[in-house]
Amino acid sequence: xxxxxNARMKTEVLQELPxxxxxxxxxxxxxEELAFYEAARTRALERIQQLNTENLSTKRFSILAEIARLxxxxxxxxLVDENINLASSKxxxxxxxxxxxxxxxxxxxxxxxxxxxxxxxKEILTTEQITYQYLDGSTPSxxxxxxxxxxxxxxxxxxxxxxxxxxxxxxxxAADYVIILDPWWNxxxxxxxxxxxxxxxxxxxx
Length: 206
Known about the structure:
Helices cover 44% and strands 9% of the residues. It starts with 9 loop residues before the first helix and ends in a 12-residue tail after the last helix. It is built from seven helices and four strands.
């Protein structure tokens, strides 16, 4: 181990990083979205009340599953019901933010815990002719360095990545903005994801 005189303390390393500013953006849903969410919430309560099992762990699992479904409903109605074609206030705001960042020459990491939600984001970015890289848990390990290198080299403006896949082993310092579309159960995972862009040697764009 190095001596204390030569060791670099974590606080000293952090001083070399550009400041990390966090902002929570609250989005007002439409009346249609509110009605859909309320119906989903009511059905979730009914299913929980109808549970006949006395097994506590089974009940907990069922309740967590219902909460997860409601969290998806907050992202996009179709994640809960594929037959629902409801405009998303969240996606509208997201697109406005990304377009503004790109117009000002920023590069963006975009995280979600739901691959199906990322698939919808891909469709929107393609429609708007916004270039992107994509990585999730199913991406072969041998392909990941190529995808990261392409983004780091400036070949694309946006990097879409599943929150789970983005927690380890990726340095994406070309990005200077990180968007987490849906909060993760464990805030520490969010911090790890955001830190993919917050690294020594980062060059801020714009």
